[in-house]
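Both lines are quoted verbatim for reference:

——
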Amino acid sequence: MDRIVAAEVFVRIAERGSMSAAAETLDMSRAMVTRYLAQMEQWAGARLLHRTTRRLSLTEAGEETLARCRRMLEVAAEMATAASACAEEPRGLLRVACAQSLAQDVLASAVADYLRRHPRAAIDLHIDARPVNLVEERIDLAIRITNDLDPNLIARPLGRCDSVVCASPAYLAAHGEPASVQDLALHNCLTYSYFGKSLWQFEQGAERIAVPVSGNLSANESQVLLAAAIEGAGIAMQPAYSARGPIAQDRLVALLPDFEPQGLGVYGVYASRRQMPASLRTLLDFLVARFAEPAHWPPGGVSSPARPRGRARARNPTA
């Protein structure tokens, strides 16, 4: 039984002089009051009350226990006050997991802004391409780009991540530019271990198209594939926020403008709503607001990089 409640019951009995009055004050049955008193006497290892037909009085052990119970209730009240104060002000350490590309291109600046606003909070970024186990690895929040959510976790939508199919001018000069998504099956495609490794999904109007792809290089980190694509290793499907810079610098060419790669959701994923610390609640609210601002998401303020049209531009790309 709850010792705090038992302490409160005993204090009320001592103050009101009877178990019936204590039960009325606490809005509790007399039987329950009797049970809490018996439990308190068991914990104290002594009889706490003299019982007569007219009144109850404290034994010597009861006097000592009453003083201790009052101190216990004071400490409990102070803890509740402290918890309430903490709930209002974000503080303490949060462990946040996300992939490298998202951390580098998006989350680092967002976290820096959040910490400037809440200097008593701290964030430990856990960078990993794989979906981590939040409970086993003590992760408070995971930022995931996915359309396949774990039903056992709570996911708060943050935004949408668009992708772009791209290759370097050198690769296209050597192998030609695919005219349709079906042509990707004839090219060396750089595939991501955790998403679409053998099947890339596209939309053209209302039509959905799945294209089998393969190549001689795959990796579990999209930034590695981006670097390989820039070096001319093959064709890659990249998050638009990662490919934007190299495309603007003419190091990559965006391909297949008439076909839209499958969009993915961006989510803040956590394990439970119970006793959510203020730092987690405010960080989620902050990210929701930040992802809703065109200046911050997608990075650069537009939904996807400008895509060239036609084969002529594949040989001599422009931003």
